Amino acid sequence: MATNTITAAGGQAAGARSVVLACADVSLRERLRASLVGLRWQVREAAGGAEAIELMETARPEALVVDCWLPDLEVGEFTGMIRMMYPGIDLLRVDGVVEVGGARSPRRNELLHALREAQDDAPGTAGSVAMVTSSPASSGVGTRPPLMREARAPAGSGLGTGLAEMVGASTAMVELARMIRLVAPKSTTVLIEGETGTGKEVVAKAVHRLSARSAKSFTVLNCAAIPESLLEAELFGHTRGAFTGAVQSRTGRIEAAHGGTLFLDEIGEMPIALQAKMLRFLECGELQRVGDNEVMRVDVRVIAATHQELERKAGEGTFRLDLYHRLAVFPVEVPALRDRMEDLPALVEHFLEAMGRDSPRKRLSVEGMMKLMGHGWPGNVRELMHVLERGAILAGDEPEIGAQDIRFGRKR
Ligand SMILES: Nc1ncnc2c1ncn2[C@@H]1O[C@H](COP(=O)(O)OP(=O)(O)OP(=O)(O)O)[C@@H](O)[C@H]1O
Ligand SMILES: [Mg+2]
What we know:
The protein is of the alpha/beta class. The protein folds into three domains: 17-128, Response regulator (Rossmann fold, 3-Layer(aba) Sandwich); 184-333, P-loop containing nucleotide triphosphate hydrolases (Rossmann fold, 3-Layer(aba) Sandwich); 337-405, Helicase, Ruva Protein, domain 3. Helix content is 38%, strand content 14%. It has 16 helices and 15 strands. The strands form five sheets. Strands 6-9-12-5-13 form a five-stranded parallel sheet. Helix 1 (26-38) crosses helix 4, helix 3 (75-85) packs parallel to helix 14 (344-355) and helix 11 (272-284) packs across helix 13. It is elongated. The protein starts with 16 loop residues before the first strand and ends in an 11-residue tail after the last strand.
């Protein structure tokens, strides 16, 4: 009896599905291809991430299988980008980790089966469920970092921070969100450290929102924005006639924040003389208006932020060590964008979405995304936001922001 064979290579037969295999390891790729072809998948192979992205564009496959290591792109970044650009596909790692959520479908089961088969065929493995990947010696890629490093769950789990205002699913951001949830309900002072534009104010607001104070005010005071001579009165208030020009008494920001949260931005810029007064307030909740003998007690939760290394400043004598310790009861660090590039696609998506509220929503081309991936982001998330805004303008009426529309500011 003649069987009606569907040739996988032809790919013309009804029901033929295609998959892109991104894997630098030739022997692993061959085994995977054999299993997949056996299941009538049409297989397209890429030796690296960039090649795989090109294939994704041309082949529009139903699935992508990616190795735990790629020679040209960090796997977390790569899968993050794929997830954003092709949300509908099955994205799996060779070790069987499913990178995109959703129901288990017959299609996915088949892929998992093929991965398992390729594993079973691997030289030296006796049907183990462990990592499929081969040793550096057999990989033909030279050095291959230990695979367990990549085998952490959160990268592709799509869980994110769980905080609406804080986009990101990198391990560092997920951990930061966990810290925020832990500390928010307390009245503990929080010190937020991080480079410019990383999202320190976003973190401060999240702490406030998740606290019992959320219905009360969130007051911001940027210590760098107010002249030194005025900062004390601004913070603590003053009586009438306390100093030249004080024609009326005035409530300070601390007093005004009673019951709520006071966010002291750029705390490193606080004049050293004022630091002592601040310390006293933090230690016993007491404050005095300038020119007043009366001591007031207020209930304010202080969150401070800095882009400077306060500990180093304390060592140099420009910041009080005791205040530093008092502020840093609960220190958190917001990581630089370049150290969590796997968050980039989600952030891009977030900003394109936000910009799409006032004007037609644009998308970003693959080349544009590659350009963003290659940038060092000294201005972090804020810089990304501006680059995309600029890109959207430069793209004009085009629905897509291209690589030529991505322009970075002058080198700092
Ligand atoms: N994880 C994030 N998700 C979404 N938006 C973010 C995130 N991080 C930062 N942003 C956005 O980026 C911009 C800069 O963030 P923010 O003002 O909190 O940074 P910052 O660390 O306080 O910067 P600076 O040190 O310059 O004061 C804001 O528009 C903020 O909404
Ligand atoms: Mg800020």
